[in-house]
Amino acid sequence: MTNAQAELLAEIEPVTAAVTDRRERHSILSALAQGLKVAAEHETQSPRVATDCIIIDEAGNLVLVRRRNEPFKGRYALPGGFVDAGETVEDACRREVKEETNLEIHDMRLVGVYSQPGRDPRGHVVSVVFRARADLAQLKAGDDAAQVEVMENWRDRSLAFDHRQMIEDSLKAPELKGGDG
């Protein structure tokens, strides 16, 4: 119970003590308990942190995974996933790319932070997006990727989440154009 909940309960207790009917008192306290439960759930629903990685070769081909799981099962997406407790976003990005594509990434550059509350149907997820290089000869699907591909025609594909916006943003950024490939 949070301090705010305890204070609310302390204020309401004298009011409910004046109610002599046991069933009415029980009903009031049950409603209060339910309200405190909802309030506690709301307080703990902070955004989750994820990371996504844009890997584009010299020819402009993009590494995409086909999602094995919902949401967007079967759709193409950037490799990425949730940051574990005690892990930096950079380390999470390296781990997720390795798990989903078998690639070791290097020369990571920050593209941006995507925090629109509705961007992920599972809830409020903030994604920290990087662009990186990798030796694509090691490419192999793993983890929750049904398959992984280097796509020339990625612009023609339906992408999951807001990944198209992430890619477009990375291509517009002059500081990201040189050296990534």
Structure description:
By secondary structure, the protein is of the alpha+beta class. The strands form two sheets. It has a four-stranded mixed sheet, with helices on both faces. A three-stranded antiparallel sheet has the order 3-2-7, with no helix packed on it. It starts with a helix and ends with a helix. Helix content is 35%, strand content 25%.
Concise overview:
The protein has 181 residues and is of the alpha+beta class.
Regions with little confidence, pLDDT below 50 for 5+ residues? none
Shape descriptor: elongated
Annotation, overall tally of beta strands: 7
Under CATH, the homologous superfamily of the largest domain reads Nucleoside Triphosphate Pyrophosphohydrolase
What is the helix/strand order? HHEEEEHEEEHH
Task: Let me know the average pLDDT.
Answer: 85
Rg for CA atoms: 23 Å
Topology record:
Layout: H1 3-17, H2 22-43, E1 48-55, E2 62-67, E3 76-77, E4 80-82, H3 89-101, E5 105-114, E6 125-134, E7 145-151, H4 163-172, H5 174-177
Parallel strand pairs: 1-6
Antiparallel strand pairs: 1-4, 2-3, 2-7, 5-6
